[in-house]
Write a structure and sequence with these properties.
alpha/beta, Rossmann fold, Histone, subunit A, Helix Hairpins, 3 domains, six-stranded parallel sheet, 6 strands, globular
Length: 303
């Protein structure tokens, strides 16, 4: 099969081996890698975000990794613009773009287009978040269904982020998120994408997460957080959401010990992997499930 006209997307939960798999694939098919992980864009956070190491970047060209300052917020819209530019550049070189990451919204923006929704006032957003917290997701979802019946079967009842988003959009714009999506303009036609999802058994993923947490500390996670804290990044900035910053900051302030910090990071990472899997079940049903250890089988299945 001629892959020159294709764009390969590789998604999967955190610690599932996406980076390693994409590296092997890029070597086989003359590809270049584009990052689709919202936390791996940050320059000063290499260890905590498990960004590809220099050795791998030398072997295969990587794009959109570690270029954004932690003091800046980086949006899905900005990522989409830059990734489309990179796709064009890679294709000009007669190479195959391979887009890799765990941020579902980035992939959705690329495959389905970006919804041009007016900005929701921050005060209203905070009010709705607080309401969801106080009611709990079950009651909040029922309230959302009353406000916007169109989201039934479109947003999973356990999907907190998308439920809050749907509520604030309908409340502020008086129009359902579903209607906003219908107006979306696609940038790339669907037939150009080959969508691969790394499917890892939960038990194996948990041990990979535990190993990653251990390696983080070996590779200098504490020093990285120390440097990050010196930068005095505003609390509301996205970079503060990187798992490990809060836990290691508490360790440095002697609010917990090393083992507790490691355990909390592992728990949060497992919870994040679970949210990614929930998103994939709802949004990535058409993606081919692959085993990252079986590259030859994955290559056979490219269609």
């Amino acid at each position: 099969m001629d892959l020159k006209s294709k764009i390969i997307l590789i998604a999967g939960p955190t610690a599932s081996g996406k980076s390693n798999f994409s590296l092997k694939l890029a070597k086989k098919i003359n590809g270049e890698v584009i990052n689709a992980d919202s936390m791996q864009v940050y320059k000063q956070l290499q260890v905590l975000t498990a960004r590809p190491i220099k050795k791998d970047i030398k072997k295969i060209k990587h794009h959109l990794y570690g270029f954004c300052d932690v003091k800046k917020n980086f949006s899905t819209g900005e990522w989409l613009k830059l990734s489309i530019k990179k796709i064009k550049e890679i294709r000009k070189k007669k190479k195959v773009p391979i887009i890799v990451g765990g941020t579902g919204l980035y992939f959705k923006a690329l495959t389905d287009g970006l919804v041009k929704i007016p900005n929701i006032p921050i005060r209203l957003r905070n009010k709705i978040r607080l309401m969801q917290k106080q009611l709990g997701q079950k009651k909040f979802y029922k309230k959302l269904l009353t406000l916007d019946p169109l989201i039934k079967y479109k947003i999973e009842k356990n999907d907190i982020q998308r439920s809050i988003r749907a509520y604030e959009i309908k409340y502020h714009t008086k129009k359902s998120i579903i209607n906003w999506y219908k107006k979306t303009k696609k940038y790339i036609s669907s037939d150009q994408f080959i969508k691969l999802y790394i499917d890892y058994p939960r038990e194996k993923l948990i041990s990979r997460i535990n190993l990653r947490v251990y390696e983080m500390f070996v590779n200098g996670a504490i020093q990285e957080v120390r440097r990050f804290n010196k930068l005095k990044v505003k609390k509301e900035n996205s970079s503060n959401k990187v798992i490990g910053i809060k836990e290691i900051s508490n360790l440095l302030d002697k609010r917990c010990n090393l083992e507790q910090a490691k355990e909390l990071i592992a728990i949060k990472t497992r919870q994040y992997a679970k949210r990614q899997a929930t998103w994939a079940r709802g949004q990535m049903q058409s993606w081919q499930k692959i085993d990252p250890k079986n590259l030859s089988l994955a290559l056979k299945n490219l269609k």
